[in-house]
Amino acid sequence: MSFFGSSNTSSFSFGGGTAATTTNHNPMKDIEVTSPPDDSISCLAFSPPTLPGNFLLAGSWANDIRCWQIEDNGQTVPKAQQMHQGPVLDVAWNDDGKKVFTASADKTAKMWDLESNQSVQIAQHDAPVKTCHWIKGSNYSCLMTGSWDKTVKFWDTRSPTPLKVMNMTERVYCADVKYPMAMVSCADKKLVCLKLESEPQEYQKFESPLKYQHRCISIFKDKSNTNPVGFALGSIEGRVAIHYIQPSTPRDNFTFKCHRSTTTSNQPQDIYAVNAISFHPAYGTLSTVGSDGRWSFWDKDARTKLKGSEQLDQSISACAISHNGNIFAYASSYDWSKGHEHYKAQQKNYIFLRSCAEEMKPRNKK
């Protein structure tokens, strides 16, 4: 029997009545994903539009990758699971949705064939692999991996040796790919923009617009939603930078504060890490999630906040938006921002699904 079964799900609604009623761990009363990982959730990724229906991946510190099918009524069906020898730090789909790539602290990346449910190692680094992204070019396809060994490598999945190795100035902390552009962010706050057309090559290097350690990066497209033109960068200091590679005016590039406590003038402000950023595939608006246990939706062009969540009882460690822009997924689990001593093994991890098409729509200008 095929991994995918026969169900063809293409829309999403709250018909199933599966939302939890407790307000502490789920204050927004969103739908809970069945059988979430047993340890901190590091990454989420929705299936590409080439695959009928919606499937969701999650990688975790329990060394596993899980996949669910999301039905029309919001019910989530666990489909399969694979393991690494160390925490899974990133996941990515290939373009046809039949294979999944996983990056791990065990210094490898694997390819998981969903139809046969077999997983094979296809990449190796000298330190944990922090990022993995599938590149589907006009004349080549490959997997891009970024590691704490200070390299970015490009892999033909049929060969044990990389097609290309790029040396970075420091450990790779986060990366993103929207063909024909890739962004890599390093531990020394240096950023590298890559052009991917005929082969991966360095296009531009620049200093971070943010003062503190980077946590996440996400590429955005132009207003016609065709070409990648810039990126949003999140840091541990509760701040996001919106940065165009070729800004039309200096004013195009700006930073904004988020994931901070509201405070009065004589009270210090609590500042939290921005753990993940996702752009809406149709509107170009974005979501941010943070160590404060909140998510927010933003319109970068209008420079306004569209919606914010109530506070969850633990950090939101990852988020993703479905290819049709209807579902916002976010993970409630410890993000290690306060160190190992604050980790509570008994605290359950959750993944929530929220209908976001209306809430992420830009508001009409008056």
UniProtKB/TrEMBL annotation:
Q: So what family is this one in?
A: Belongs to the WD repeat rae1 family.
Where the WD repeats fall, as residue ranges, is 81-122, 143-165
Write down the SUPFAM superfamilies for this protein, in alphabetical order: WD40 repeat-like
Q: Tell me the compartments it is located in.
A: Cytoplasm, Cytoskeleton, Spindle pole
Please name the Pfam families in this protein's record. WD40 (PF00400)
Q: What is this protein called?
A: Rae1 protein homolog
The record ties this protein, via PANTHER family, to: MRNA EXPORT FACTOR AND BUB3
Family matches, as PROSITE patterns: WD_REPEATS_1, WD_REPEATS_2, WD_REPEATS_REGION
UniProt entry keywords in alphabetical sequence? Repeat, WD repeat
